[in-house]
Amino acid sequence: MKLAALFSGGKDSTYAIYLAKKLHHSVEVLLTLYPHSSESHLLHHPNITFTPLQSESMKIPQLVEEISSTDAETEFKKLEKLIILAKENYSIEGIVHGGILSKYQKDNFSRICERNNLEIISPLWNKNPESYMKELLEENFEYIISSVSSDGLDNSWLGKIIDKSGLQHLKNLQSKFEFNLNFEGGEAETFVINCPLFEKPLFIQDSSTEWDGYRGRFEILEAKLKDNA
To answer: Is the same domain home to 113 and 11?
Structure first.
């Protein structure tokens, strides 16, 4: 099936593409909304402006729409506009999205798909958090923590690449502070810098961090695709 992918650049949307391809679907285009506020109910915010580098590395074209409103209905209208454009230009038959637990998101995505006679593919839906996080490492997904907003996650996590020891540390903190290990509750956000879908990894050349004592973000200021050689 020809699919468009809802894409934020984070681990979930990228891994959903990977699984869709393993299921022999063809991902024809990425759909990305750029929110101007971290208060968005639907959209990931940190570093999303660097998703074109990921698009280039995956050799998948990208349709982008900027949005200033944080109103959920406005966001979905903008998303539907992108989906209609993808259907017209790429003959897509469905949408792949990386949701795991958010019924709110899935119901709204399903509503848009139904209106436009499209299938919805949700390969991560209800995945066990620990097994999913381990699976990401086993499949050679490299991603950084781009924001944190949870008890137990301090500024030392900002910009950190999650490896096996990092995952074990997260598990220990999760047991104590009871956040979602896969960050589905918004406890943290991520940005993929390398994975099997990429022809070239991303190299972060400059960045900055913000920390208010509880919430923080790692902002990429400059990045490029790095030659593997």
So the answer is: yes
Residues 146 and 70 in one domain: no
End residue of a domain, out of 67, 93, 121: 121
Same domain for 216 and 157? yes
Residue 40 has pLDDT above 80, yes or no: no
DSSP 6-53: E--SSHHHHHHHHHHHHTT-EEEEEEEEEES-TT-SS---TTGGGHHH
What is the DSSP secondary-structure string of 169-192?
HHHHHHHHH---TT-TTSSEEEEE
Structure tokens, 170:
């997260």
Q: What is the pLDDT of residues 58-96, one digit of tens each?
A: 999 999 988 876 677 788 888 899 999 999 999 999 999
Distance of CA 79 to the CA centre of its chain: 15
0.90 cut: is pTM over it? yes
Looking at the DSSP bridge assignments, the partners of residue 144 are 161, 191
Q: pLDDT tens, 148-161?
A: 999 999 999 999 99
Contact partners, residue 54, CB within 8 Å, separation at least 6: 7, 9, 14, 192, 198, 202
- Of 121, 152, 179, which closes a domain? 121
The answer to whether residues 116 and 144 belong to one domain is: no
